[in-house]
Design a protein that fits this description.
The complex is a heterodimer of chains A (about 400) and B (about 425). Chain A has two domains: about 260 residues, Crotonobetainyl-coa:carnitine coa-transferase, domain 1 (Rossmann fold, 3-Layer(aba) Sandwich), CATH 3.40.50; about 90 residues, formyl-coa transferase, domain 3 (2-Layer Sandwich), CATH 3.30.1540. In chain A, α2 links the parallel β2 and β3. Helix content of chain A is about 35%, strand content about 15%. Chain A is built from 17 helices and twelve strands. With about 425 residues, chain B is an alpha/beta fold. Chain B is built from 19 helices and 14 strands. Chain B is elongated. Classes of the chains: A alpha/beta (about 400), B alpha/beta (about 425). At the A-B interface, α2, α6, α7, β6 and α8 of A face α2, α3, α7, α8 and β6 of B.
């Protein structure tokens, strides 16, 4: 028995919006599951209102931000504040294996489609709710978004220079942590159900998932009382280590020397400068102790180099090194090109736009970006007619009544 | 035979051999939390990750690395020298009774030991091999080296972080490895699901550079769709020549606060109302229509004037926030539904009432240290099969007898012989 896609045959009712939920279901969609995004004109996914937009022009169906997270999915519209729409949502869940939502807790309950009610229409249902701080606890109902969560879960405080304000990561950092946990546990729950027939409810707090990238620092505080802070580009084990200015405007080279062999490799590329023989730099501990001076010496060389060439020379000498790539560099990186990192998909309104490829490849059931993200309501007819079995007359009526809206 | 506890675990009955270093161990930890049996395969003498700081009571000791504790809790440990033929034979026996192998060696290393995917799948067609690679297993980067800072740089995040007058900067604590490790868990599960239907395993290649590119939140598309791109600018975000703070100082640290109107005007109005109650809001801020204030307005305005207004707002907001601590500000923001967050430290996180109410931190006994440490608990709450941190990280080779004697059924004589030749 062979399969083209890992999750073909799996059906997902995707009520989620913004980042974490849709990124989670994208894994399933790109690997063959039938994922139906339930949206509404009355309250469009905020990512549809956010740039980057095709040609820089705003529009509900022009956001690449939305498009990137919603490949390979079907899109329908339902105004869930209306009872008839709630009834259709329950029908869709009866059809599905999985339901996912990412509202603040209460929203699904108010619409009559929380887990307690949905399990009645589908006892085998697996349902994932993911919100900022979890379904329970005193802060459960507090809304938020990824930038705030990145700050709350400690990542702003450890980014930047010790003598300055934080230099936060770009964007909604934790929105790119939580889905990795959410997708893993959702897939495991699917497999558990395959073995046992038992579905279940999953409450994933983005806060709690994100803290797993901070565990050593949490233990360090508890045991040693140390509060991890900003350390610039300092490393506990590597020197030289950091970003060094190169020829040209804002061109930088990252490199890292962690042992004697890499040190010798660096010196060879620099054609054995006289300071290379300085006994203070002869050992890794010595290099760590004198890292400031090393930084100056290394940069005196890099400023005369082209970043790409220097990275290449260092790599050949066995030194971990690479260009500090801006977004244009990424599109021209032959490594990313060989991997298929950027792919142009034909979108109904946006035309060909750059989508991110995958972070892992499978040798036998590879996933793919099966199609571009749906425009709002693109698959209403297919889903309501072919999946839910509504008649064309019913669909027309529900559309006129703005239930399907 | 499975115990009731094992039956109730999400991934009970599955076994993973974790050969990875700091780049991949979070993947094994996630599987352990889900109830799989995860066996850390260490080289004799112990895994090099045991040398990573911080240490328990700052005592450098391979049994006291908190980094090791963090990402190996709940795993078992065996020692095995894969560079010897004896060691490889033992590994092959382990592969025959396992479901997953996780590794982060340089690309091609396992093949050089004749333990690549093709060889492993001949021993066990069900096996799933997950390999973490810096730049993929083929293409021009397959043999390039990268550590955290190089991945942060080549993946595009470093260029977006830092201040204009200093070099691009990274985040502390080897973040790129954790992204890759967690992504490896997704990849491994994506291979696992069809394997259970077809009986056929496969090779999962994780590209660590790609894992960082994905964290850029679509920034890659700006040059192509808008013809411009963001440049690092510290705590500021900007558009149309204007710059706005995202982080403000307060009495004991900083607060993250996006002063945006439009759809977020409700939050800004609530904030100004609070300032006004404390008599710290200028009258013009009280009267301002915040629904019309934001990037859309900025586009049609004269840059200089808008920047003047932004500066005035930020000055008033800073003066207000400087009268309070992070905790005081956050407590009030929760009540008033103002969207902000403290720039939290590990101390703040440890004291979180929300995490306490959800019993997030869990006690793990380290009987050898005479201590019970509090660990981040399950990353999700499941109604039927709760996740759990199964116990402390293992000592070096702690489970040699259990795994080699029990699981593989080796005789005492065979174990002694393997020890004598240094294979285990």
């Amino acid at each position: 028995m062979t399969r083209r896609y890992a999750f073909e045959g799996i059906k997902v009712a995707d009520f989620a919006w913004v980042g974490v939920g849709p990124i989670t279901t994208k894994y399933l969609a790109d690997h063959g599951a039938t994922v139906i995004r339930i949206e509404s004109h009355t309250r469009p996914d905020v990512l549809r209102l956010a740039p980057p937009w095709r040609d820089g022009q705003p529009g509900l169906n022009r956001s690449q931000f939305f498009a990137s997270f919603n490949t390979s999915k079907y899109g329908i519209t339902l105004d869930l504040s209306k009872p008839a729409a709630q009834e259709l949502a329950r029908k869709l869940v009866a059809w599905a294996d999985v339901a996912v939502e990412s509202f603040t807790p209460k929203a699904m309950r108010n619409w009559g489609i929380d887990y307690e009610q949905l399990r009645r229409v589908n006892p085998r249902l697996i349902m994932l709710s993911t919100c900022q701080q979890g379904q329970t606890g005193p802060h459960a109902l507090y809304p938020g978004f990824g930038q705030l969560m990145a700050s709350l879960s400690g990542y702003y405080h450890i980014s930047g220079w010790p003598d300055r304000e934080p230099a936060p990561p770009y964007g909604a950092y934790t929105d790119f942590i939580a889905p990795r946990f959410a997708a893993t546990v959702l897939m495991a729950a699917l497999d558990y159900r395959r073995r046992t027939g038992i579905g279940q409810y999953i409450d994933l707090a983005q806060y709690e998932a994100a803290l797993h990238f901070l565990t050593p620092a949490l233990l360090d505080y508890q045991v040693n009382g140390r509060v991890l802070g900003r350390e610039g580009n300092r490393s506990f084990r590597s020197a030289p280590h950091g970003a060094y200015r190169c020829q040209g405007d804002e061109r930088w080279l990252a490199l890292s020397v962690s042992n004697d062999a890499q040190w010798q490799g660096l010196l060879a590329v620099l054609r054995n400068p006289s300071w290379g023989a300085d006994p203070r730099f002869a050992t890794q501990s010595g290099r760590l102790e004198h890292c400031d001076e090393l930084d100056r010496l290394v940069e005196a060389w890099t400023v005369q180099q082209e970043a790409e060439t220097a990275a290449d020379l260092l790599q050949r000498a066995g030194v971990p090194a690479g260009v500090v790539q801006n977004c244009l560099d990424l599109h021209q990186d032959p490594r990313l090109e060989a991997w298929g990192m950027f792919q142009y998909l034909e979108h109904q309104e946006m035309g060909p736009s750059p989508y991110e490829g995958h972070q892992f490849h499978l040798s036998k059931t590879p996933g793919e970006l099966r199609w571009a993200a749906p425009v709002l309501g693109q698959h209403n007819e297919y889903v309501f007619k072919d999946i839910l079995g509504l008649s064309p007359e019913e669909i027309t009526r529900l559309t006129e009544e703005k239930v399907i809206y | 035979m499975t115990t009731p506890a094992q039956r109730s675990a999400l991934m009970a009955g599955y076994r993973m051999l974790d050969l990875s270093d700091e780049k991949g161990m979070l993947c094994g930890k996630i599987f352990a939390d889900m109830g799989a049996e995860v066996i850390k395969v260490e080289r004799p003498g112990g895994d090099p990750v045991r040398a990573l700081p911080p240490f328990y009571h700052d005592e450098p000791n391979p049994e006291k690395s908190l980094f090791w504790f963090a990402y190996n809790a709940g795993k078992k440990s065996v020692t095995l020298d894969l560079t010897t033929a004896d060691g490889r034979a033992v590994f092959q026996d382990l592969v025959k009774v396992s479901d997953f192998v996780l590794e982060s060696f340089p690309v091609g290393y396992l093949e050089s030991l004749e333990l690549g995917y093709a060889a492993l799948s001949r021993l066990n067609p069900r096996i799933i091999l997950t390999s973490l690679t810096p730049f993929g297993d083929t293409g021009p980067g397959w043999n390039q080296q990268a550590d955290d800072v190089v991945l942060w740089a080549t993946g595009g995040m470093m260029a977006l972080m830092g201040e204009r007058d200093r070099p691009p900067v990274r985040m502390n604590l080897l973040q790129s490895y954790f992204h890759a490790g967690a992504e490896a868990a997704v990849g491994t599960m994506t291979a696992h699901y069809p394997r259970e239907l077809t009986g056929e395993g496969q090779h999962v290649i994780v590209n660590m550079q790609a894992c960082i590119v994905w964290t850029l939140m679509n920034e890659q598309a700006y040059p192509i769709l808008h013809g411009n791109s963001v440049q690092r600018n510290g705590v500021f975000v900007g558009s149309e020549g204007m710059r706005q703070r995202t982080v403000f100082p307060c009495k004991d640290g900083q607060i993250t606060l996006l002063l945006a109107g439009g759809p977020l005007a409700f939050s800004l109005r609530a904030f100004v109302k609070w300032m006004d109650e404390k008599r710290m809001a200028p009258q013009w801020m009280v009267e301002k229509d915040w629904s019309q204030w934001g990037p859309a307005t900025f586009m049609n305005a004269k840059g200089e004037e808008v920047q003047k207004e932004i500066d005035a707002i930020e000055a008033a907001v800073t003066a207000f926030l400087m009268t309070m601590t992070k905790a005081e500000i956050y407590a009030e923001a929760l009540k008033r539904r103002i969207l902000l967050a403290p720039v939290a430290t590990v101390a703040d996180i440890t004291a979180s009432e929300q995490l306490a109410a959800r019993n997030f931190f869990v006690p793990i006994v380290h009987e050898d240290l005479g201590a019970t440490l509090s660990y981040p608990g399950p990353f999700a709450k499941l109604s039927i099969t709760p996740l759990a941190v199964a116990g402390r990280a293992p000592h070096i080779g702690e489970h040699n007898s259990e795994v080699y004697g029990g699981t593989l059924g080796y005789s005492k004589e065979k174990l002694l012989a393997l020890r004598a030749v240094g294979a285990i």
